[in-house]
Amino acid sequence: MCGIIGYIGQKPANEVIFDGLTRLEYRGYDSAGISVVDENKIHVCKDIGKLRNIRGLLLNDFGSKSPIGIGHTRWATHGRPSAFNAHPHSDCDNTLMVAHNGIIENFMSLKKKLRSEGHKFVSETDSEVLAHLIESHYRGDLGNAVINALKEVKGAYAIAVIHREHPDKIICARKESPLIVGIGEGENFVASDVTAILSYTRKVVYLDNLEAAEVTREGIEFFTLEGEAVKKTPTQVDWNPVAAEKGGYSHFMLKEIYEQPQVIRNTIGGRTSEEEGKIYLDELGLTGPEIYKAQRIVVVACGTAYYAGCVGKYLIEKLVKVPVECDLASEFRYREPLVDQNSLVIAISQSGETADTLAAVREAKIRGAKVLGIVNAKESSLTREVDGLVYIHAGPEIGVASTKAYIAMVTALTLLALMLGKIRSVLSPEYVQETIRELKVIPQQIERVLDKHEQIKEFASHFMDSRSFLFLGRGINYPSALEGALKLKEISYIHAEAYAAGEMKHGPIALIDHELPVMALATESNVYDKTISNLKEVQARSGKIIAIATEGDKAIYQLTQDVIEVPKVSEILSPIINVVPLQLFAYYVADLRGLDVDQPRNLAKSVTVE
Ligand code: G6P
């Protein structure tokens, strides 16, 4: 995910910024750039590639030792990785430069308007509109120009801006994407996270949503995006560099669980039009009959990606009315699968390097099927072998147990199903509009689930010594049960089995006694009553139920007091919310058992061998 750093002080800015960018490398990126103001002129150098490869350009050949500048590492979303698309971006006459994290949702309409006013664009990015928009509002006061420009912007952003007429200040602002200001002695910093500036200062101010700052060498003034001054208190950060990479969380897995609201914003950002009730998956690649007329869809994937695919089956069958089969990639590749030119194969993978998934894709192509990849890692092997792509934009996932990639995969599958359902006239524009509206508030609803971490931790402490778990779910939340059980066994080493709740009576009911905890997904749905009946069968045999239920569900308390309430959402979106308490539960059980959460025994993040 992109990283920003800005510097104003006494040292050569490009050196400080380069150093800061290397500390943001862990976020993942494909290009980088630095820009400074020197004697009322803008200097900028940017290129594609890793910092170690473009070090010469950004340090030795930079051509200015100016002490004010901004830099950026870019993780491509809108527009391929290239020097043109790298940040910082300039306006028409190189009067100002902008580094941006986040996604400008209405960039297409803003670009159209700015073009009609004569602005010239050189990149494919959404971010470049910010530079032109600020230029169009500039009347001599940079802070005001930024505020007025941001009033026209929809979406998420953290930005840092410099201007050739103001070599004494950096203006920065944020909405949803994080941004901090670092306070030094005769020097100050702007950064997307503290890791970038820890070697210079530990005194930082966290900007709140819709806040901005004017950062000069001598001081910092904070204000809201309405222009009202605000007083902020600095915090002393006492993290070591490793803790900083974890953003202060004790494990990458926990950090990644907490990143999920932002990940969903990234996955859907710029891809929906609420007004038109339309989904845009620009990089899709596949057009015409291959995708829109496929008579059958087959999903191939492994592990967590496979369970995301199982949610996808419910989504696509419901919203697109095309039969979907889900296959484990390792099974698909050896069973003479019945796919041909009328089939669309969807391959899902976080790493894009899983050997079984790649082999399944090759098998599908030999049989004439078109393949669509749903992938996180940019430029991975899978992205080069498929006919079309949907990137999930989850950013680098370090914890071996996948969390944020799963949520992003399910979100991307939801977008795909909505798009196909609309194109095939199964869904009305109103339905798509309403679902887009709902999707956009899911991040806040996940934040409310994350706020329940103490309660979930307490449940984890009650059940951490159990020898085995049964996870139950039905319908679209049966895969949620499978994923919840996988998370628990991967990191806590407790045996966990998931079953479709209605199937329990055909076997696992024999296991139920007062010692077996049963994690039940019982949120509102068309199978809610059926699920409750299944849980009564558990209760009758003294099983201990922990229920994930919809806020305000009083009836569930007749079955158990151990209830984690989650916000009410449409059934088709419920897997995105429901998996979050299961991830946290698995995390706390493993952590309380003193286990290595991020690198569980015997598991690898990316399985590149068969
Ligand atoms: C490994 C990982 C899992 C992951 C699976 C598929 O088993 O430990 O977390 O779900 O591979 O990986 P992919 O990169 O293809 O999504």
Describe the structure.
The structure is a single chain. The chain is an alpha/beta fold and 610 residues long. The chain is built from 19 helices and 27 strands. The chain has an 8-stranded antiparallel β-sheet with strand order 3-2-4-1-10-9-11-15, with helices on one face. A 7-stranded antiparallel β-sheet has the order 5-6-7-8-12-13-14. A 5-stranded parallel β-sheet has the order 19-18-20-21-22, sandwiched between helices. The radius of gyration is 25 Å and the shape is globular. The two termini are 30 Å apart. The model has no long low-confidence stretch (mean pLDDT 93). The structure holds 6-O-phosphono-alpha-D-glucopyranose. The site of 6-O-phosphono-alpha-D-glucopyranose has 16 residues, from α10.
